[in-house]
Structure formats: C-alpha cells, structure tokens
Design a protein that fits this description.
The chain is mainly beta. The chain has two domains: about 180 residues, no CATH class; about 180 residues, Porin (Beta Barrel). It contains six helices and 21 strands. Strands 1, 2, 3, 4, 5, 6, 7, 8, 9, 10 and 11 form an eleven-stranded antiparallel sheet that branches.
C-alpha cells in the first residue's frame, strides 16, 4: 500500500530527526584562557547548561566537558556563548554553563530549568540580581503591573539611576532575552557611558536552529457516525452510531529557534468499534451488527498560540491513513462486500483537524483536544467519519 509506506517513511524520518545532533563550528575556552577549535553539538537549553559535547579539530573522539572542566564554550560567527557560572536557582546555588548574553557595566546571563527562564544581572562590583520568567501570565492587563513589580523587585535595585529603565521593567508583559538585552544595553549607555559600549554575544534574532522532540501518549473515545452502503438496490443505506475507545503514541517535534508555536506531529492510534442497528417496526429480523479494528496513522502539525504560558490554545490538522482490519458482521447480508469486488484500497487516506488546549505540569504537558477524522472505507462500502476527544500526556 503506497499511502501506508509514505506515512511510515515520514514518521520514521521525524523520529530519526529527533535523535540527530546539531553540529556547529565553535571552540572551548580552557582555564588557561586557551581556545580549542572544533565542532560543538548545539542542543537544548537544558543540555547546553549541563555539558558541552565537543569534537576538536583533528580528533576522532568526542569529549564531554562539564562546567568545572572549562571556562566556557561558544558557537562561531557570533553564536551562543556559554560560560561556567555559579548562580542561585530557587535559593540553591548551582554551577552550570550560563548563556552569556551581554557584557557591560551590568552584564546579563540566562539559564533555563524546569520550563522557567532565569536571568542573572551582575554589576561591576559582582552584585547579582535574579529575574525569573515562567510565562504564566496569558494576557497582559493593567491589574498585573503590581505582580510584575514584585517579580522584578530584586533587579530594580540595579537601575535606580534610570526611571525610564524602571518603568519599562515594571510594565513589560513578558520578560524575554531580547527585551532584557536591549533594556540593559540602553541603561549602560545612559548611566555608565565611560564604561564603553556593551557587547552583545549572541544575535538572538538569528540563533542557530535546534530540534526538540518529545513523546506523546494519548487516550480517548470517538463517536463513529457510520453509513453502510448496500450492495442490493432495494436496500437503503444503513446508519449506525457507535463509540470507539482508542489509545495512541506519537512524537512532537519543535524547532524553537524557527518557531516556538509550530509543532510537527506523527501519531499512531489503535481503536476498536462495535456497533449495531436495532430493528424498526417494519423489519422483523434481529438487529444487524458489525465490529472492526482500526490502525490510524496521522502526520501533520499543531500550532500553540501561547507556547510559554501555563495554558495555551492549540489547533491541529494533517493527513490521516486509517487501516480497517478484522471486520466481522452479523445479519449484514446485502451490505458487507465479502468478495471485495469494489475497486478501492483497503484503507482510508483522508484528513483530520482539531482544536483544544495544552497545560504545563512541571516539566511535562497535558493536552485535551476535540478532533474530526474523515474516513471512507470503499472496500467495505463504509463511510465512518469520527469525532474524538483526546487526552494526551507529553513527556
């Protein structure tokens, strides 16, 4: 089956892509301030903070550097720059590779852990102020300014010389690397011009791309609105509605430095359907029944409108290939095509669409979506569009 092969190949490609490294030219900085050129595996924020996977020029063995092993590492061509630092994370001192965003009279570092961005402001005297952004404010309103001021209270002590800076910091709806880099750079220029121009180490708008893949498990129930087409002209179409429980497993692939909202999805579902038609007043025979198993392969995309927030609306759509198996019938003479003489494939290659929401739970996500899956099994003379409620858990 050509359509089956295409979807299986594409799903395999997505899963393979999720396991690939992202090699980029860069260098490590030793404790003696020497630089060693080579290739750096530029991975997720959490992995970049934990270790540096490095292949030196001329070597054939990859070396894993921990924060205590080197002073830092950097991607070439003004790429991301990580330095060994010890900063507080929720009151606990931790040593990691912090992303060095800006150097000046007030310098800026970033660290991401447990879906929270931590920003560290360090002045020329070594004083540290911490900002954190969890992305838990879905919409900006005036009554949230007070909460925002509490969030940035520690950092305001560094900006007492500039009312303009304080005002922007207090009223910003979301703390981002781009916003803070621009804010601190302007503050350094305004209040400490003698210290020289601040240096931005990473072009945040053109950061290298990376792949972030997560496994998704789903379960739910579907309502099958089935229409069975007759083989005998004197019979009318048979309408049957049935519930179909299902389970599924898939993979979500995000390219966060390309789009944090777009999610590529590949999913395989299994469902079981058993439906019947009770005899009406005209019919004198017993009820008709049919049952079958369905393997559904879906390949498409989802869009998260507020990816950094605790709760985000999502929409999803794509191609769907349903494989109907193990059809069994009771008293369906004249409807079920036992000889399979209808010239059609033994599956349904159509589409799906849905909408819902996802919610962060610690470092994981829970999703709830309502979906429509179009299905038409011509071999069995069965049209069976399905409406589903999917509950998902994303690792």
């Amino acid at each position: 089956m050509r359509n089956t092969a295409i979807i299986l190949i594409l799903m395999a490609g997505l899963m393979k892509a999720s396991a690939q490294t992202n090699p980029l030219p860069g260098y490590v900085i030793t404790h003696q301030n020497d630089t060693i050129n080579g290739i750096i595996d530029y991975r997720t924020d959490a992995k970049n903070a934990h270790s540096c996977m490095f292949l030196a020029d001329g070597d054939s063995i990859i070396t894993e550097y921990k924060p205590q092993d080197i002073k830092g590492y950097r991607i070439k061509d003004n790429g991301a720059y990580y330095v060994t630092k010890t900063f507080p994370v929720e009151g606990v001192e931790k040593t990691f590779f912090a992303e060095f965003l800006l150097s000046g009279n007030v310098s800026l570092y970033r660290h991401r852990e447990n879906n929270t961005d931590y920003f560290y402001l360090v002045d020329q005297d070594g004083k540290i102020a911490t900002l954190r952004e969890t992305g838990d404010i879905p919409f900006y309103r005036e009554d949230q300014i007070a909460n925002q001021r509490k969030k940035v209270q520690e950092a305001t002590q560094m900006f007492q010389n500039s009312q303009k800076t304080l005002q922007q910091l207090w009223t910003t709806p979301e703390i981002t690397p781009t916003f803070l880099t621009k804010l601190i750079k302007e503050y350094n220029k305004e209040c400490h011009p003698d210290a020289g121009e601040s240096v931005v180490f990473n072009n945040l708008e053109k950061s290298p791309s990376k792949v972030n893949a997560r496994v998704r498990f789903e379960a739910g129930v579907g309502i099958n609105d089935m229409t069975v087409c007759p083989l005998r002209y004197w019979l009318s179409q048979l309408k049957i509605t049935a519930l179909s429980p299902f389970i599924g497993v898939g993979i979500d692939v995000v390219l966060p430095r390309v789009s944090k909202s777009l999610i590529l999805q590949a999913t395989a579902y299994y469902s079981y359907t058993k439906g019947h038609k009770e005899p009406d007043k005209i019919e004198s025979y017993f009820r008709r029944e049919l049952q079958y198993h369905d393997i559904c392969l879906q390949l498409g995309a989802a869009y998260s409108f507020l990816p950094k927030k605790t709760i985000s609306p999502i929409v999803r759509a794509g191609a769907s290939l349903d494989l109907l198996m193990g059809m069994k019938t009771v008293r369906m003479e004249g409807y079920y095509d036992m000889n399979k003489h209808v010239q059609d494939k033994s599956g349904s290659f159509r589409y799906y669409a849905g909408l819902g929401a996802e919610m962060k739970v610690g470092s994981h996500k829970v999703s709830l979506t309502g979906n429509f899956v179009m299905r038409n099994f011509g071999t069995f003379g069965l049209r069976a569009p399905m409406y589903t409620i999917n509950l998902g858990f994303i690792l």
